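job 3f2a | input accepted
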Amino acid sequence: MSNASQADGAMARPSSTSAAVRVAFAFWITLVGTTVPTPLYPLYEMEFGFSSLTVTVVYALYALGVVVGLLVFGRLSDQIGRRPVILAALLLSVAADAVFLGAVDLAMIIVGRVIAGLSAALIIGAATAALAELIGPRHPRRAATVSIFANLGGLATGTLLAGVVSDVAPEPLRLPWAIVLVLAVVAILALRGVPETVRERSPVILRIQRLYVPANIRGAFVRSAITAGAGFAALGVLTSVSGLFLGMVLRETSHTLAALVVFVAFAGAAFGQLLTRVLSSRAALASACAGLIVGAGLLAFSMWMPALVTLAASAAVIGVASGVAVGDGIATITMKTAPQHQAAAVSTFFAILFAMLGVPAVGVGLLIQVVGLRPAGGIFSAVVAVLALLVLLSLVRRGPAQPAAARSAG
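job 3f2a | predicted structure (410 res):
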């Protein structure tokens, strides 16, 4: 090939760095769209006349969409390639944004949340794998860091974007969705030319994937899943009822404040995942359990002695603890599971986490209807603390901690 032809080829195809940036942007904006409704729920309640229980049910349906998507489509990008699945996720994200943009009743909100859940399920596996392949095996930490901040950074940004826009701009139930929709379309256009990293395709087989827990790490898997699941349950409740708490208890009507609480939680989760690089497995899980116990205590305290600072502190501590537990679980799976079983184990792990993200939120919604917001928050906080304490006690029976150096690949 001539030098001119090589130059033309180089111009026609983005570099691997440019391609990774485009995939990361697609990952980020898809996850942004999944948390835009969080600070807007009080407005939707007033607009469409539904209850706090309905809010938690809507949130649970989003989590259900993610779980179903993970179990049915978790291996799709291995079969047909990363780019088609990322593109499908973006198209679903645009569809969800459009549904919310034109929402006139509760049914449209439910449809939008389910579609958003499916888009998140598709993007999580495909974009994470694509980033690892584009950035290359020589930089596993860089790929993991980009994935973490695209994923959790998107979740955090969506709440803050919607909160700020709904406070300072007109059409608070429309403008945030218009912004996210436009950015998602930009991501679709930016995906053009990104190289496909899957070389060998296989026939598409769609079926519900069986939950898979590797026998050799069953105990560690269960401990990490329980701890991370308790943290995700707390994140789910914070996400679904923080606006309600601020309005009913603290008499704060700022949607930015409600968004800031959730932003702090997800930013803390991103930071927590990075901490697992310097902690042994035992120290990471013990720290996560201790953090959840403290965070649950702060959450209960903020319910009975209302103060925004303690609510924000509980969100930060719970977020960091959840991130540490997730990071520990993923590191354990990737280091101690055969490559051919890693996808199934990771999908199972995240299916458990997203189930815990949604189901307890409905339980808290029911409790709020029966006993009120503050007692419901106190009961939930106690359950989270007990789960974390049980895992912490089980760690006492384990052997010596694994050296931190052995986890450097995570």
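job 3f2a | The chain has two domains: 15-195, 213-397.
job 3f2a | closed
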